[in-house]
Amino acid sequence: MSQFAINLIFVGGSFALYIAIAIWARAGSTKEFYVAGGGVHPVMNGMATAADWMSAASFISMAGLIAAGGYANSTYLMGWTGGYVLLAMLLAPYLRKFGKFTVPEFIGDRFYSKNARFVAVACLIIASVTYVIGQMTGAGVAFSRFLEVESDTGLIIAGVIVFLYAVMGGMKGITYTQVAQYVVLIIAYTIPAVFISLQLTGNFLPPLGLFSDHVESGIPLLQKLDMVVRDLGFVDYTADVSNKLNMVLFTLSLMIGTAGLPHVIIRFFTVPKVSDARWSAGWALVFIALLYLTAPAVASMARLNLLTTIYPAGPTADAIEYAERPDWIKNWELTGLIKFDDKNADGRIQLYNDTAAFKATADARGWNGNELTVNNDILVLANPEIANLPGWVIGLIAAGGLAAALSTAAGLLLAISSAISHDLIKGSINPGISEKGELLAARISMAVAIVVATWLGMNPPGFAAQVVALAFGIAAASIFPALMMGIFSKRVNSKGAIAGMLAGLLSTVIYIFLFLGWFFIPGTATLANTPDNWLFGISPLSFGAIGAMINFIVAFAVSSATEAPPLHIQQLVESVRYPKGAGAATDH
Amino acid sequence: MTEHDRNAAAYWSANLRLIIGSLIVWALVSYGFGILLRPMLAGISVGGTDLGFWFAQQGSILTFIVLIFFYAWRMNKLDKEFGLHEE
After folding, report:
1. pTM for this one?
2. To which H or E segment does residue A339 belong?
3. What HEC string does A110-139 produce?
4. Which of A163, A395, A531, A584 is within CB 3.0–4.6 Å of A6 for a Cys-Cys bond?
């Protein structure tokens, strides 16, 4: 059977499963559409949250980033898991006790202001739409590589699949498909990792293999990797970083941003009780950790495998001849994600770090520049091919990558559509809308959101990597502080909350635009995006944490200069703090 | 202040103490051992590298899991002790 047929069976089979779930789990009420009826078991919700949260960025990109950056990119591992500690202790249980359907609804009620609710809706939509573009483009890459269809055709297929289960089932359909998608993606991620760990270290558990001895050389894997990359002029894989302030702030921005992402928060509205929300956050992190503990092992092993493929006799001997390159390089060259340029015309592939410090060595070896560029994003997808694993593992990876992208896209689309139908239409434009009318409005806004997301995926604005930073920055600087102050302070009032959210949002967005271009239009950046220009060495990606601090300071300063919130709001804060009398999530 | 109010206030300050304690550990394993204090842990070697590297890539994540389950277990117990749990 051809590889194409195998891929088709795996991807087609997983899609058939999602559609079957969609037909079974149809939503009949707004409560089912927004919060899956509020009766989801905490372990099951943990699994759905893991799929909801782990996007194309986690599945496809993260291991590649760590492989390229080594220790310095541990920030992603800590940042994207540490946010769950904040979520479990500072937000989820209290928002579950509040018991309504959306994040802006809490902000609007707690700060007794429609304007606060509008600001929250705006932040939510900007953060979620930018995030969803990345998912759709990720799905497009997976389709074009594995199913040999045009990326645009692939996106339309993805859009139709999401449409079927998200529009029909709402949160109920999304929850059960996310559980199935988690199973698909975690199997797809771990099986190749187990094989590779066995090949390289003899240990079948990748997280342990990472710290074991390399079978071939008999020295620890990480030491071996350090030696190989050093010989090619790269920084040691395990080397420490000098700009620790930026590393701390970047990790903090990712943590706060994770806790403030609305599509993750609303998952905790679906469990029956406050105590379940606490357990559920723990289970979510367990399921996430299965991938996050595997990723650093995949990263280091794939980097070593790649360099061994290029330098079969070791990094100090001759590189492989281009004519004899393995099939996987040929396959990925077709997508343009691997590029070869024989700069010294010797017919061999020289891959090294082309810097001034390494120039003397490169000259002595007759090298005339780095000749192979490998996009970080292909590392996980190409991993089974690099390690010569059987064809069905490649089919599995294709289904897994699509599961990761689609599950996150569906969660984001639900957050967007509920903000429109519940916060804007029912909350403001037409408060008298009937249950049936609101459900229809929710479905229509979901359908529109899918069409917009698919279109944006086909015409990506060309800044996919930066927009994810923007999504995290906005969630960190605007949504997280407003929610936290709403729960932990009785003194912060509507004026303080609105001023704080706007100050956090604007400072973060402006700082990002200064370096990455105004509205991301290429060539409009005010300052070059280099560490010399950054304020105190803080990169635009790390600014969300500073934006959050600005939000807190402005909110407290404005609140203390103005009147205290009315008594019934202080009682509302009291009530979210104590689990007693929670009841199911309601509209009233 | 009524008896009920005093009970509720005591529950909330117990929760805050638990959160602060947990977040100190949370910051220590990630920002501390994983980033800022890594040079101090350089002498302790773990599988070809040092303890700081291990905390940055594995130790912090494992600690986060333990922290959340510990918090959930303690709080669910406190809910009952203070009579503030859901029926």
Report:
1. 0.92
2. strand A338-340
3. HCCCHHHHHHHHHHHHHHHHHHHHHHHHHH
4. A395
CA distance A259 to chain B (A): 14
* Pick from A89, A248, A577: CB nearest B35: A248
Q: What is the ipTM score, two decimals?
A: 0.96
Cβ–Cβ < 8 Å for B62, A289: yes
- The closest of A338, A279, A341, A346 to A306, measured between CA atoms, is A338
Is B22 in Cβ contact with A85 (below 8 Å)?
Answer: yes
Q: B8-62, pLDDT tens digit by residue?
A: 899 999 999 999 999 999 999 999 999 999 988 888 888 888 999 999 999 999 9
Chain A residues touching residue B12 (CB < 8 angstroms): 577-578
DSSP string computed for A463-529: -HHHHHHHHHHHIIIIIHHHHHHHHH-SS--HHHHHHHHHHHHHHHHHHHHHHH-GGG-TT--SS-S
| Rg value, chain A, Cα | 25
pLDDT in tens, A558-570: 999 999 999 999 9
Q: What is the largest CA-CA distance in chain B?
A: 61
Distance (Å, whole) CA A463 – CA A524: 13
Residues in chain B: 87
What's the rounded Cα separation, in Å, for the pair A19 and A237?
43
Taking CA–CA distances from B17, the nearest residue in chain A reads A89
- Rounded-to-integer distance, Cα A444 and Cα A463, Å: 28
**Which domains, ranges and CATH numbers included, belong to chain A?**
27-302+387-424+467-576 (1.20.1730.10), 312-377 (no CATH)
Tokens of A352: 């090294």
Q: Would you tell me which residues 401-460 of chain A have a C-beta closer than 8 angstroms to some C-beta of chain B?
A: none
Nearest beta carbon to residue B48 from set A223, A251, A275: A223
Q: Are A78 and B36 an interchain contact pair (Cβ–Cβ within 8 Å)?
A: no
